Give the backbone structure.
Amino acid sequence: MAEHPIVQYTSPSSWALIEDKISPFAKETLAKLIKFMEEDVFPAIRVAHAQLPTDPATRWKTVVPVLVDLKAKAKQLGLWNLFLSKAHYPQYGVPLTNLEYACMAEILGRGGQTASEAVNCSAPDTGNMEVLARFGSPEQQKKWLIPLLNGEIRSAFSMTERFVASSDATNIRTSIRQEGNEIVINGHKWYISGAGDPRCALHLVLGKSDPNNSDKYRQQSIVIVPANHPGVKVVRPMQVFGYDDAPEGHCEVIYENVRVPLENLVYGWGRGFEIIQGRLGPGRIHHCMRSIGAAQYALDLLLQRVTDPAKKTFGKYLYEHGTVVADIAKSRAEIESARLLVYSAALQIDRAKPKGALKEIGIAKFVVPSMACQVIDRAIQAYGAEGVSQDTPLAAMYAGLRTLRIADGPDAVHIQQIGQRELKRAQSVTQRHAEIKKKEKALADKHGVKAHL
């Protein structure tokens, strides 16, 4: 039997570990995706960048032509909405597990935003589609979810606020209140991904609807706000290490007396925190899946650079200098280890849904982006000045992955949560250890010996 093409991008051992859990349909889809990436998407990435104007007057109004072509072909090939598992979303999903999608997302991670958008698997739309598929009313699904699933529109998720520490969602100040049969929204948000895109048709806005509720996790609600609605003002695109990520961008947005019908409330009053937890779990692991692919791509670029005869210094290949070989080995080991974390989290989501995989998702979320940043940093070092320029993808990759250590919950929050979770095991661990010591003493007494350890 011919070797699956995925092993050229991952490793035979990691594929062997999960191959029996991958369906024939998923294997075929994965092979088809790899071929599509190699033949169409990867060659189009620089073209897409060149088709995006630098003039701000047109930059934020442009739909990149080559992406339109890629999306049409992906749809034709059946490479569409791969992230949405039929097991969790029977009405809208595709017959892929989260583990199967993990393999595909790693390939997408090599192609950045272009690759993910080409197959309608790019944030924030993926998370928003999951919210609407899981929590949306039939009317909301018909009006907003179906066009998103078809790739006809794009969306924004509006949570982070400029003047508060938004990593604690209970700090959110945006006001959402009912007046008659309308909902009125007032708030000041920033780093709202997707809000700059000319195709953006809706914002999912998180705000406080019941600030005096004794349960601080029942104070928030989520409302659908049409992007072009009166009172919605996109102030400016925010930059990330100097990158604006046009045309979707990460924007500062003000909602001033925005009025929407009551039916735009998602899932009910006070359910906002519940919704974002359901949304962020899969979103976090999707980011980690793609981060593995980015790290692997950076290692590939590093290998090309250090073995390039045109880049010899002092008569030697770069790999013959200093710690370059050690850097390569460390990168390989770190990528392999991180990939297993991601597979573990994806498998646990399949078995127990996101809520039952919080530990695995949390560990992956603070380990994987840091690992990818480290690998990319080594590649940048090998490329020298070129590594931090616009002539390689490394600088932009680093900016995106360094930001990921803040987005969807900063590292410190996940580390704290995992540490607290581990501490809960202390009592049972201590009891188990005491029982073993008791048996050890009985055995030592029986044999008339005294333990030396």
